Amino acid sequence: MSNSLLSGGKRYWKSSDEFLIANNQENTHQEFSADYDKPPVFESPVTRRTFMALLSASMAVGAAACRRPSHKLVPTVKAVEYRTPGIPNYYTTVYQNGNAAIGVLVKTTEGRPIKIDGNDRHSASMGVSSSRIQASLLSLYDPDRVLRRPRIKGGDSSVNNAISTIADACKVAMADGKSVRVLMHEHSSPSLSALTSEIESKIPNLKFVPLPATIADGSASANMAILGINGEIVPDLSKADVIVSVDADVLGTDKNSVYHIRNFSSKRKPSKKNLEMNMLVAVESMMSLTGANADCRFAVAPTEFEQVLASILKEVLAAKGTSAVGTGVASSVSSASNSHGKKIAEMLLKAGDKGVVVTGAHLSANANAMALCINLALGSIGAGKALDNSHILPNSGVKSTAITALRDELKAKSVGVAIFADVNPEYSGDREMKALIAGIGKRVSLSQYADETSEICSVNLPTTHYLEAWGDAVSFDGTLSIQQPMIAPLNESSISIADAMMQIAKALNPELFTTAATYYDYVRARHQAALPNQAEWELALQNGIIKTTEVISAVTPIVNEAAAAQWTSISSNAKSGKTIAHIHLSPNVYDGDMANNGWMQELPNPITKVTWGNIAAMSSKTAAAMNAAIGDMIRISTANGSIEVPAFVQEGMADDVVSVMTGYGRTAGGKVMESVGANVYKLLGAGESLGYISVTLEKTGANEVIAVTQGHNSIDGRDIVRDFTLAEFAAGHAKAEHPMIPHDLSIVDSYEYKGHRWGMTIDMSACIGCNACTTACQAENNIPAVGKDQVIKGREMHWIRLDRYYSTDKEGNVETLFQPMLCQHCENAPCENVCPVAATTHSPEGLNEMTYNRCVGTRYCLNNCPYKVRRFNFLNWHKNEKTPMDLVFNPEVTVRMRGIMEKCTFCVQRINEAKFHAKDHGRSRVNDGEVITACQQACPAGAIIFGDMNDKTSRVYASKNTDDRNFRVLEELNVRPSITYHGKIRNKSVVKA
Amino acid sequence: MNVTDTINQDKTPPNGHNGATMMHSAFEEPFREPLVLGNPSLHDVTEKISSIPVLTPNLKYMITLFVFASMALWGLGCMGYTIATGIGVWGLNNPVGWGWDITNFVFWIGIGHAGTLISAILFLFRQKWRTAINRSAEAMTLFAVLCALIFPLLHTGRPWVAFYWLTPYPNQMQMWVNFRSPLVWDVFAVSTYGTVSLLFWYIGLVPDLATMRNYVKSKLGQTLYGIFSLGWTGSMRHWHIYEISYMILAGLSTPLVLSVHTVVSMDFATSVLPGWHTTIFPPYFVAGAIFSGFAMVMTLLVIAREVLDLKQYITLKHFDNMNKIILATGMMVGYAYAMEFFIAQYSGNPYESSVFINRASGDYAWAYWIMVSCNVISP
Fold this sequence. Notes:
A: 4 domains; 34 strands
């Protein structure tokens, strides 16, 4: 199967199975989806009665069953200001990914938000977004969040009652000499910080403690010790030529991944004229998205990270001298020796002060300190450098001290009331924390969902979504944004956490907040100085950022040499035990905050392509050692607990490491998230969080079908993806493999496209595989999530499938390629001529159009599509969508009923909108850049270019006609796709600019 | 079972008609096995055959009816469930958009071929042994075409619109069907085939209906048979017109035997899928159709012969003849199987080869080898 026609020897594969088959190691060929042999008839058990009912109804049912559910239209009695029916309004606000602020622009129609995109004026977003930002829209309309009521001791209540009950409880506790602790999630809001300190100062027994689900203090501790900065420095990857990532998933689960991807990919698009390109080196034990995009990747055991870093540090100091960090450091790493480290140091030294090492904050403080010293020695820290020491992630300081203090208080039973403000320690806490919480006298929960912690709280108060509440947020570079609500709280008995805290505090101390009735007033008053009048306030809301005159400038870092010397020694707390589990964040549901979001659950993991649940990813060697096949349930145990997850063989894993994601295994709070996957937090002991723990693995004997969207198809050596090294590209090899295929085989003349002709290019070199396009497309085009069972059957509906391929380099290291695969809008579309009812046809502008109303669902087009990008509504996926879930729909796009085929439309609704706009302005043509597809808009890598191929000045024309890397997938079929791809370039040797 | 022949006893037999020769075949062709055993008179044949629809059904018949009616009802229930819930209740997925639905369609259409072949081609070739089985074969064809029509309709996502949107008719949407689609060709091929088969069956049945009209005692039976026998009196003129029209219809349906499955095969042959995109499909499908059609006729007749006590009329000789055709078409199909593999390898197309290697050794290898052993080795 490796005898490819076209791909010239290099072999690509999609799943480990396919690789094994090709090597004749195993004789099972997963050509079909995992449950192909399951009986498909009757999803639910059919009783005698159901059967008889079906039987008797079967005659009439053909006519009766086929109606869409009817809805009543309610006219607006009072006209609403600023609203023209059918014309969307755009408002800015700010999304907080933990403590990272990302400015967004929200599209609202008829008063309801229907799409979230990045705000191009905001420095952390720059107009692009992530799948999590896109999907946060769906959480707004989540019935499990909206249809909740405040509850006191299990009975329904009101917001006011709940707040006074909480306040009374606090009063009682304080009178009793006990304290009140408010446990908060991470945030980046200066107003909220001010609010909490104001409350703390006026109510001495009340204190706010950060208790996020995951804690990673390594980086902040190192920065604190050596630079005196209590926080994490946010790197600017666009300023680096060589980036060394030591277990830092900057492109994946980092809170600022959008910003990092944008910067990283901006230097991944070399052309013949400009060969400049950055280089990413990854050292990691699991296969992360960052590792998958690395030009050079080293899979090492987690115990080796410090060795590698020490070795790099030693080499760098040897070359650059010790003046930056002091001689003490040199002596503490003098014994280090590591072959990977030496190679990496060589690459870094070539880049000089444009070389930067980033480390995972979950690694030890020592590892982080070593990386810091390397950067100091290289000179890459400072104003205007890749690591600007004024770019500190807000509220990213060391948290473990405060949490340890809290544990001590809880142990001493001095806490009378605990208020859980959007934190869920009953789910995410370690074993000790859960036991301590159980001992608190009065527990109160302020949360969006009736989650695990709410269940053990006597008062439950629903809180608002970020699109429903006022607030503000500051990003690492000081960009300040106002968070403005898009819609009144859908849950009428919900309240924002800040408002709730204000009211509780006011009840405890009437001196507080005498001038501000609500949190909005508080925020407004805080920004009074910067925005003195209403016009300026409105301008700030319009821009999404507050222009501050105050510019934070980086000063030359002052290094505490003694601390540097102390912290750079290799720490002795190496994990014992044979197998190490890597606890890491899920790129989709993260620490569990988005677990009830169907879009996020169904979004395939960028690397494993697993949906709906977590897995125990391990190398094939590790799996073979315990005789585990994919899907065999593995019990992972520690002294604190055990979980059972299905085994998954993953390329590029270090041996004896098993990686498991957080965020799954929820037991309460929402229909979507409950009993999906396993709760990794159960494995943790006191103080443990993200990172590495020693575990024991055993097979339980059971097995589970993993809902993986890729891996059950094989490519059989087709020429689908192409990659080159930068040297090969420079030498002109990128074009060498173009197959000699005649393009004019038809006996009739090709159609002449006189007006627009839409086309797209996708740069596989820039694409990092983050999935933002998939979710953006889902939000724009009303694409349903179908659930785990249906994904297992291969019926996922995403219009963009982010294909992931593996290959190996000359040394045998695994390389990864990403290729977003969507409808190619072929000129000779094989789907079009087989449709009996002409439901899919070609438009005069080159679109492959799908007429839903005409489709009868023969699925012939699906069979005949060589790219397999057509999606069929096998069932009525919208059947279980409850109000207010239906408000999320984009009114410009038809919601498809069952029995209908669908696929990418090139966002035809956006094309038409642009055409109307052009017509309004008296133009006959749409200008380049006026139509931006949803995927293109979201793509943080800027990998997608869409436009008019007939317009010789358009970006897409230039991209298709001047780029040497341009190729068409499956060109030999002569279907002439309108989408072309640019082959991936890997930078295997440092090229100095 | 052809009752027509029995009429000849009472009416003047036209020269050279099957019925007359059948009776005398034992004398004219002494070296051949007789087509009917026991040398019954024409009246005996009429009595025997005509009594079947009139007499109270026997126990064997009732049991058979019960078994098959239950199966049909179960099928009806499943269809209702499919239409009410959606096509997703089947195991279809992406990229395998078609499954048993289209397999069944091709299967039933193929089976239908035996009827036409027996009626038309064997008639034109003057194969006299066909008369014992042609009526049942034609009836089976009709029901097979009906069954075949269920599946393409049921397999669509929205059968409630598919059943008329696939036909070209002037409509308010100002839409025509897409004539480039093989599925539309199917609609034409199958509907033509169905119509011609129906006409052929009915025209052939007219003299028999007249016999039944004369035979039945009930008023209702007489009226209904009377209406459908179109005033048949058995006059020379009637026989003359009958013979001519039968011949014309036989001529018309002969190309259909070849065309229908050729068109059906184009559903696959015109696609871009490796393993489907091959030119061997039309002859291969036709041979397979005749093969399976004869097998189905035999399956049904084995039951009918036992249940309705017709061993005298449907003899082993008939089975022997049909077996010869099955053997011939089975070999053709076997050749096609082999040729597919050869071409896949010879073309040098790795995707094509991969499909075939996978077909013989992949997940569905068991099905493939059952097919090969049943279709090629065992006949």
